[in-house]
Q: What sequence folds into this?
C-alpha cells in the first residue's frame, strides 16, 4: 500500500509557544510502543468484518493498509523529532509540528476505517466502533501529551499557550499501560456470539 504524505504542517499554538528542554530520550521507546500497539486492534477489524459482511472486506483492507503505512510514517516522524531534540538541545518545533500533523492525519485514517467497516450486524459494528474509538482517543491523548495547552494571562488579556514539553518516560509509560488496559477491556468483553468473542479474545492477547 502507498503511504500517505504526512509532511503537512498545521498550527499548534494559539497565542504563543513555550519551549522546554528535553528531560531525556528514553521516553521514545514508550511512544513507539504506543503507536505500534494501535495496529493489532485496528488490523483485527478485518476478520471481524469478514465474519459479518465479507463483501466489504476488500474495501476495509484498503483503508487498513493506509492506516498501517501511516503508523510506520508517524513512528519515523517521531524518531526524527527525538533525534533532533538530542542534537539541538530541545528546540525542534518544526519537527514536532510534523509529528503532530502526522498524528492528526492518522486519526483521519482510522475514522475512515470506521466509515468503510459499516457492517449490518450491531454486535460486530459495536466492537468495531469501540476499537476505533479507543485508538482515536489514544491518538488525541498523545497529541495532548506533547502539546498541552495552558492558560496564561496578562492584564486585560487571556492567552492560550501550547507548551512544547517533551514528556517524561514515566508519563508515557503510564499512558502506554492505560492504553493497553482500555484495549484489553474492549476486546475482552463477551457478546455471546462465539465466533466474534473468539476473534476479539485473540486480539486482546496483544495488549496483555
A:
Amino acid at each position: 500500500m502507498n503511504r500517505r504524505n504526512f509532511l503537512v504542517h498545521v498550527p499548534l499554538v494559539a497565542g504563543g509557544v513555550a519551549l522546554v528542554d528535553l528531560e531525556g530520550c528514553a521516553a521514545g521507546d514508550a511512544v513507539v510502543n504506543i503507536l505500534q500497539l494501535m495496529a493489532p486492534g485496528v488490523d483485527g477489524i478485518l476478520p471481524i468484518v469478514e465474519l459479518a459482511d465479507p463483501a466489504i472486506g476488500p474495501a476495509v483492507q484498503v483503508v487498513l493498509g493506509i492506516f498501517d503505512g501511516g503508523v510506520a510514517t508517524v513512528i519515523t516522524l517521531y524518531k526524527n523529532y527525538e533525534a533532533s531534540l538530542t542534537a539541538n538541545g530541545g528546540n525542534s518545533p518544526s519537527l514536532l509540528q510534523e509529528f503532530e500533523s502526522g498524528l492528526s492525519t492518522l486519526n483521519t485514517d482510522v475514522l475512515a476505517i470506521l466509515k468503510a467497516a459499516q457492517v449490518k450486524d450491531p454486535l460486530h459494528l459495536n466492537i468495531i466502533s469501540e476499537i476505533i474509538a479507543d485508538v482515536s482517543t489514544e491518538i488525541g491523548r498523545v497529541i495532548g501529551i506533547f502539546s498541552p495547552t495552558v492558560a496564561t494571562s496578562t492584564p486585560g488579556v487571556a492567552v492560550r499557550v501550547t507548551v512544547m514539553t517533551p514528556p517524561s518516560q514515566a508519563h508515557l509509560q503510564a499512558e502506554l499501560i492505560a492504553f493497553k488496559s482500555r484495549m484489553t477491556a474492549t476486546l475482552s468483553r463477551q457478546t455471546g456470539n462465539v465466533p466474534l468473542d473468539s476473534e476479539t479474545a485473540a486480539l486482546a492477547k496483544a495488549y496483555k
Notes: The chain is about 65% helix and 10% strand. Residues 187 and 204 are 5 Å apart (CA to CA). Residues 57-88 form the longest helix (32 residues). Confidence is low (pLDDT under 50) at residues 1-26.
